[in-house]
Specification:
6 copies of one chain form a homohexamer. By secondary structure, chain A is α+β, with helices and mostly antiparallel strands. In chain A, 32% of the residues lie in helices and 31% in strands. Chain A has a single domain, classed as Molybdopterin cofactor biosynthesis C (MoaC) domain (Alpha-Beta Plaits, 2-Layer Sandwich). A 5-stranded antiparallel β-sheet of chain A has the order 2-3-1-4-5, with helices on one face. The radius of gyration of chain A is 17 Å and the shape is elongated. Chain A starts with 23 loop residues before the first strand and ends with a strand. Strand 4 of chain E pairs antiparallel with strand 4 of chain F, so a sheet runs across the interface.
Amino acid sequence: MDELTHFNDQNRAKMVDVTDKKITSRFAVATGKIKMHPETLNRIHEGKIKKGDVLAVAQIAGIMAAKQTSSLIPMCHLIPLTGVDIHFEDDNDTTITVTTKVKTKHVTGVEIEAILAAQTALLTIYDMCKAIDRGMLITDVHLVEKDGGKSGHFTY
Amino acid sequence: MDELTHFNDQNRAKMVDVTDKKITSRFAVATGKIKMHPETLNRIHEGKIKKGDVLAVAQIAGIMAAKQTSSLIPMCHLIPLTGVDIHFEDDNDTTITVTTKVKTKHVTGVEIEAILAAQTALLTIYDMCKAIDRGMLITDVHLVEKDGGKSGHFTY
Amino acid sequence: MDELTHFNDQNRAKMVDVTDKKITSRFAVATGKIKMHPETLNRIHEGKIKKGDVLAVAQIAGIMAAKQTSSLIPMCHLIPLTGVDIHFEDDNDTTITVTTKVKTKHVTGVEIEAILAAQTALLTIYDMCKAIDRGMLITDVHLVEKDGGKSGHFTY
Amino acid sequence: MDELTHFNDQNRAKMVDVTDKKITSRFAVATGKIKMHPETLNRIHEGKIKKGDVLAVAQIAGIMAAKQTSSLIPMCHLIPLTGVDIHFEDDNDTTITVTTKVKTKHVTGVEIEAILAAQTALLTIYDMCKAIDRGMLITDVHLVEKDGGKSGHFTY
Amino acid sequence: MDELTHFNDQNRAKMVDVTDKKITSRFAVATGKIKMHPETLNRIHEGKIKKGDVLAVAQIAGIMAAKQTSSLIPMCHLIPLTGVDIHFEDDNDTTITVTTKVKTKHVTGVEIEAILAAQTALLTIYDMCKAIDRGMLITDVHLVEKDGGKSGHFTY
Amino acid sequence: MDELTHFNDQNRAKMVDVTDKKITSRFAVATGKIKMHPETLNRIHEGKIKKGDVLAVAQIAGIMAAKQTSSLIPMCHLIPLTGVDIHFEDDNDTTITVTTKVKTKHVTGVEIEAILAAQTALLTIYDMCKAIDRGMLITDVHLVEKDGGKSGHFTY
């Protein structure tokens, strides 16, 4: 196991020096779930047709959040992202799964960007539906896969 | 069950009109977990003494994120928060639980602020430790309790 | 005609002192248009059904921009908005009109917030469609109506 | 006509994948107008000498807004800009025209950045003068010219 | 001497709970200096007439920064400011002094806002002139006076 | 002495055109001090052990601020930073000195980023301790060293 790399010689946090790392194509895929009352999920799907589209708002929130990663996560480098895409699917009649894919061509990876996009999309679903279901649960959020850079390929 | 309130008469998203709601004291408590290798959790605790303090960074990230809620979650109102506090504890040798408490005196509640603070603290732990453990899992994120406002008291 | 109120005794810009102004309910309505090839407008409407919803993205962008007004317009006060709503309609086969309504209960008005929401929604339409029509024109952006505060009611 | 490229296979918005596009020098020029009472324009020009400089504030607002483009326009990539310049001129005794030029060396163009800079400069003029003239009109905002990248040269 | 109030029972940072504090009118005045080559100061003053206005840019930067205080300083509450004003004067042929005044009607004070406005105005002067004088010194930055709230009046 | 480069042919501010500058490895080191009552400094050090860690908050604030430089300083280019590190030491029983080091591989330097990190770390110390010592003084803030780029090496 490697050392934790985010601390300096005063044992304080630093932004890791990546000046000499190579620019390579990188991507990361993350996922997460939100569980709710079947009635809530029903409303979301009806909504898409009749009342408005909860998932469209969640999609945009996730994409925009990915671009704010370095403002929110203290030791993250700013990374100009080259692509962000988000998909939703129902697991069953109580669960929506979000899958995010983030790409870049840069010296560091975009794992945090992908997870943040997933978290934000899920929280936006919560926000849009909380008036009818405050007990929703956000769960199983993790990196699915990443590639590019020195540490190479990872699958969960 | 109430209607989804975030859509207008064109079935598009809107920021709900709260102009005539009463200002009251409100709080929300949220929680979430991050699961990791026992070795990773060990390093975090050692780190607190010898190498730096992962949870101190996560704490600050969570507090600062709570203040950015209305920038990240599309239909959230800007709420001047009157207090944010965050606690961490170990569940067992593989899990850290975060608990956040957010307070305000305003026309809408701070559930989303509390959950976002929890999510961001957990993702910061992931970011600080990902070099040694990319397979960490963020899970069981939910509102624990809220009070204040027309919808009254809620516990999960 | 009143004096320009945004300058100090060194003839430099300042944020106008509103400390002693009264909190009142206020709203502002703004509008603007984007003109395009009939084919582009056609695609937007088809898109709503078959390919995705340009106006849903524009709607969310406009609402989120309204919340960023004080970060973008140098002398604007931060105003906690109590509601934002946006509507789109076709004028004819080449023009979409956006109408925004912003509300607050505060010491200053939300005219700039309403216009910024309109401008951002229109620019988002441009961005989403520029691959097929770079010659779109954003035009006729103005305040339609505002009410509340010392200066009272205004209609264009 | 090309396809609208901002939608994924679920017909939802995505940030277009530009990972494999070439880095080239690019620029975009945009323009827009604000129409007002002749007395207002008069005050702006007097102001420059006696009371403060409305256009100096508008200039800075426009430049700073160009840097925020990817935070405001949902599907825009973050682009490190290499230059931003803004000019104002009077068309006649009721109209100020703004012209913006934005440059980069990147994989995507800066059309949106140039238009956003123009819109923000114009809205700042409105904000600085609204106490004396709420009926100002922002109009004729469009891309003037762009160059660089696969789609090549464009003039309005 | 009072306790440091920014730490919780886990000895970690928190945003202090101000839910029950009274809303009162408050202001804070801060100051700071930047020292430079006499030739640099000369250029700034010439610039005002012939080439552009360094202090106009610094003024706007300071005002806009005051509005971002809660995003930058981790434990600061978001405070809707009711006024910001900034003045510059020469101390002698090598020094510019900035004085900032920030006002609010809120539950907490605006000392940090006033100091941040001063620091940002001074750093903007540095940025605008660094091509001709990298050795400038920012110094003597402090709160001058504040009033309002439980802790009452303070002068340096 | 070179010309002030931040003004255009209308004598207004612009973001300098760096499109054709070469990408090189660059760094900047900055410093600054905060002076306080000996009792305050004592509390900070005690705090590290018993009550919480003021400098840990200041460290993170400084690093996060460096990433926001182009949002705060009007004519600064956005620069993807490749590393940020911050150290604190006591000069004597009334003074903490901060030293920041910022790195990038880009077309412009990071002097402003380094100074802003120092200023923000110092202001965060002020904020965390102001309840016990409002008379703290931030002073001696300057660039210490920079390297890389056409202007080459500089030491204060």
